[in-house]
Amino acid sequence: MGFLIDSCLIRALFSLYILSIILASSAAKTRHLKWEVEYMHWSPDGLEGVVMGINGQFPGPTIRARAGDTLHIELTNKLHTEGVVIHWHGIRQIGTPWADGTASISQCAINPGETFVYRFKVDRAGTYFYHGHYGMQRSAGLYGSLIVDVAEGEKEPFHYDGEFNILLSDWWHKGSHEQEVDLSSNPMRWIGEPQTLLINGRGQFNCSLAARFSSSSARECRLRGNEQYAPQILRVQPNKTYRLRIASTTALASLNLAIGKHKLVVVEADGNYLQPFSVDNMDIYSGESYSALFTTDQDPSNNYWLSINVRGREPKTPPGLTILNYSPTSASKLPNSPPPVSPRWDNYGSSKAFSNKILALTSTPKPPTTSHRRILLLNTQNFIDGRTKWAINNVSLVLPPTPYLGSMRFGLSNAFDQKRPPDNFKHDYDVMRPAANQNTTSGSGVYVLKFNTTIDVILQNANALKANVSEIHPWHLHGHDFWILGYGEGKFTENDVSKFNLKNPPYRNTAVIFPFGWTALRFVADNPGVWAFHCHIEPHLHMGMGVVFAEGVRRVKRIPNEALACGLTGKLLMNNVHK
Amino acid sequence: MGFLIDSCLIRALFSLYILSIILASSAAKTRHLKWEVEYMHWSPDGLEGVVMGINGQFPGPTIRARAGDTLHIELTNKLHTEGVVIHWHGIRQIGTPWADGTASISQCAINPGETFVYRFKVDRAGTYFYHGHYGMQRSAGLYGSLIVDVAEGEKEPFHYDGEFNILLSDWWHKGSHEQEVDLSSNPMRWIGEPQTLLINGRGQFNCSLAARFSSSSARECRLRGNEQYAPQILRVQPNKTYRLRIASTTALASLNLAIGKHKLVVVEADGNYLQPFSVDNMDIYSGESYSALFTTDQDPSNNYWLSINVRGREPKTPPGLTILNYSPTSASKLPNSPPPVSPRWDNYGSSKAFSNKILALTSTPKPPTTSHRRILLLNTQNFIDGRTKWAINNVSLVLPPTPYLGSMRFGLSNAFDQKRPPDNFKHDYDVMRPAANQNTTSGSGVYVLKFNTTIDVILQNANALKANVSEIHPWHLHGHDFWILGYGEGKFTENDVSKFNLKNPPYRNTAVIFPFGWTALRFVADNPGVWAFHCHIEPHLHMGMGVVFAEGVRRVKRIPNEALACGLTGKLLMNNVHK
What is its EC number (chains A, B) (predicted)? Predict the structure, then answer.
């Protein structure tokens, strides 16, 4: 009798299990994509150049999925001599660290002619993007949008009637290969400010949409609308609410976005909901994404500018522009007033005020109240053998040819510097002045984090090589979100800990450090894998501005062979074979 | 007693064996080189661009060895995202087919940060060179000279008092990456004629060494002599004989070389001695090398021009120039007459006459009198989906991601097209007119040659896409020399066989086909491996102008893992491992 009851229970539980699988599979999908990456002629700003495109498109195709879906992307490298990888920026890759798309870290670069399958779950709704993460292939144009809608039956915590996708980038007329040589040369040749700001891969260099409002000599654009560099018009109905999904994959530029005469209500950052707040314009740094709502409450017989401007560096680049077109007004009717003016580039007060408005919605996970380890990371600009570099605690990151994920998983001690990089910097370092000794050294060591511990990272900015210069750096963490516990001026001290926001800190994957300031982050090292943490300014990363975190690597199972088929891991696996 | 005698004999033989090893090792050396390949700023013609350099040099270091030496070259890839290989042009790689340096054919490309050891014997004295053989890295400047002297105690069959090394190339201001995109685009954008001809990596674009003799508006060069683009002066003593070692690694240009008022006695081609013949100027096609002697029998109070000019294509490129400087005349004294004039670019009669003068010295190996197989290869220009291609017997070569040497050795039938490409073309094909159907298809099939058989190849030229156009193509064979049995006009017929030169045909690795003509080659398939045979014009190879030969692949032993660590061979070897 006991047996019969147990058997019934098991049968019932099994039926429930099957039902749950059916329900889950009816909601969550596996989305199959076949992509080919290749160089192609393109005219992002009216001047023809070469971009890295996907399936003949620039920017690459927009991915649209639902939370819980699995993406299965077969990526074929159609370049002639270059490897390629794609990073899915903001997707935490829980359980799939080999799909993070970082060459030298999570996988071997995909060789020309070969195909790699990125298969991973998009576990959370939000506004994301993807981009190349090898050399400076992001600068070459390898990027696109990744939008994850809420799971079927679920709801966003705000209402909107329509949405627009706005992917921001910056564009140089000098190719990314030559930029790499410039940045690596002795003396370093800086790439300078971008020629053009792009909105969804479109900008204007030799003409201006707003020439009539400008004192510059730029001529008015004469566009038919089907040019590769013609702006994508945002067509709206009056008295509706729209969601702007904004992501910045700029190589360098920090940006400010505004829509003439319209307020923006910011509701999401990096895939996490925010306490909504209203602004006239918003900052967005490379690596960040936002959603902002706006209501079409203005005179519908006019059109309005959406503009982006450079922040934090003296701008030499005209604003990026497109038009908000009220129905039934003609899209070709230009707005009757100049594009909205962003705060002055060096008005850091405005930027800090914006950053401080960003607070998590109550449903957001809360940070642990204490941490197990604090890592202070000093950001300095230095020289190595006369070449300009960026260093973190006096180590300028050089990535090894064998990806860390494989070499750490297999315990290959000759694959990278086994010395752990420092958790701190000299107590008496004066962050307000150029370093006494401006030379540094390169390294490939890893910060090994104890699995499931809570880590605090204090990003400490400093004076660069030149006196009175300190730059903005947006730092991006792979594999995790972190809580931004606070920003401060000057050097971080123990007293600052008491001011940490543990109540509603924003939960994000990218955080900026302001000139001469610090930013405090907290995260839980709960995602087995090896993860890049770096300045999202691509030339800065090229110059060594990053670190590598690793946690729970022994828990990583079944790394696909394709991710290991290079360098010492390739050798290791092949050496076991008798030919 | 029988035992004792045998024992003595064995001891004696053993002593002789040891002695021979000692003698051999005292003569033949292993030469160790460590090379790093990287992009660098350079000014090959007075305009700064980016070149692919080796150890900070452009062209790469000159290798100097003796016949019988082993070269051990540790090549490290310091590029950021590109693979690299180096082909040792003219070295047959007997027993070391994996060291031939052809990506997709003999080895996996060396990934960024990784090192590959090229170890091979240079078994024969001669004038050779090396260059990149991946994408268009040769066009990017990855090349240098490889000079093999006769073994110690041996003598050349001619006398000379000194020698000069002359490596010829052509240079474009548009980078090779962009050239690749241009060539692959729809419609194809042709790269056009080079901006500058380089002698040992040096040419002049914005000025002319011989401006005073020119009707063009070029200004006279004002050089200190230490500029990267200043010519290397050839300093000579009067009444001596000098050897010019000339090799052409041009991407495109066929060249003609002359020294004002000096005869050239041609004595070597592609590492084989010739019946010496005297000329006023000599043709040299991409992939060829020559030695020519000249005697300094002119007025020593003057200097003389060495000039190179374009052949076979309407030249838009000024001559490449340097100066023969007689001691004790000042090197800065310009020659008192204009640079020597080459035959008109389309004077093919002159080129054919030169080619027909090239005959083997009697000591050269003789061709077998008959062959086992004849392969006719029709060279046509075609379209695939609107893109311009070159095809051989209607197949435009596309190289597979997994190198043939490994995939054939391990019998991987899914690594490339298993269908063998055709040995012939349609009997009624009219080589004098554009094809009726200009479309073709791509393929990666292999010509499998029975080991140790004699193969005849008839390279058949034809009309290109445009009526009345047929181009010069210098075809280069890897892993072998071939005998050039003859050249002919129009379509090859059975009657032409009787005119084959079996007595003293030149023995070479590169042979040209003239417009609307054919060239007959014979070689013995006696070198186990997989070997490229292709037009040495790099953009033509990029557009599919090549075939692949394989012979005795099962005899190939111990391919280094590094040559196999990619694609399906990498996968095969890794799949055998349990992780």
Answer: 1.10.3.3
